[in-house]
Amino acid sequence: MLEHNISIFFQWLIFLGTASFAILASILMVTQRNPIHSALFLIFTFLCTAVLFLLLESPFIAIIQVLVYAGAVMMLIVFVIMLLELERELRSPLKISLSKGLGVLTVLLVMLGLFFAVFGEPKGASGEFTPEKVSQLGSIKVVGKLLFTEYLLPFEIVSILLVAAIVGAIVLAKQRPLERE
């Protein structure tokens, strides 16, 4: 019994530490002026999220979090940042009072949503995959089945969206030298 309580205590400590680092990295990501620094803090946030998935006993999702988000998507974001040369544009003085106001409004709406999600009544129906069924089938089979059956259309839409973002970044980068001449 004592070993079980110690294990839960250490899991709780790891959760609190990782969640704190994730929140801190998220705040630093949003407040940094340098887009490369923001991207690095986003990678750190993704890694903290992977640790949280490990605590939830979902190693497949944790590995996918590291490989897909911290690896592939962040390489795409860093590639686009370097391709568009955002450093010069960020140094130009712009009036951003409207964007600051919209940012504060967005933060307040997200905080309100989080408040209702944490303290509100749980809503929604239970799915067909109970914890017992997931442990029996294995989480990888469950994720694969859901991804390629029920969520196939959103999966394909996201892939098309990523390709469109890459093509758009290349088109924008190709037009820039013409504007400078």
Describe the structure.
The protein is mostly helical and 181 residues long. It folds into two domains: 1-88, NADH-ubiquinone/plastoquinone oxidoreductase chain 6, subunit NuoJ (Four Helix Bundle (Hemerythrin (Met), subunit A), Up-down Bundle), CATH 1.20.120; 128-181. 84% of the residues lie in helices and 0% in strands. The protein is built from eight helices and no strands. It starts with a helix and ends with a helix.
Roughly what percent helix? over 70%
Query: What is the CATH third-level topology name of the largest domain?
Result: Four Helix Bundle (Hemerythrin (Met), subunit A)
Shape: globular
Mean pLDDT: 80
- Say which CATH homologous superfamily of the largest domain is assigned: NADH-ubiquinone/plastoquinone oxidoreductase chain 6, subunit NuoJ
The succession of helices and strands, N to C, reads HHHHHHHH
Number of domains: 2
User: What are the low-pLDDT stretches, counting only 5+ consecutive residues below 50?
Assistant: none
Provide the CATH architecture of the largest domain.
Answer: Up-down Bundle
Largest sheet geometry = none
Q: What's this model, at a glance?
A:
The protein has 181 residues and is mostly helical. The chain is built from eight helices and no strands.
Question: Secondary structure elements and their pairing?
Answer:
Layout: H1 2-31, H2 35-55, H3 59-84, H4 86-91, H5 97-119, H6 131-137, H7 139-148, H8 152-180
Helix pairs in contact: 1-2, 2-3, 3-8
Label this structure with key terms.
globular; Four Helix Bundle (Hemerythrin (Met), subunit A); 181 residues; 2 domains; mainly alpha; single chain; 0% strand
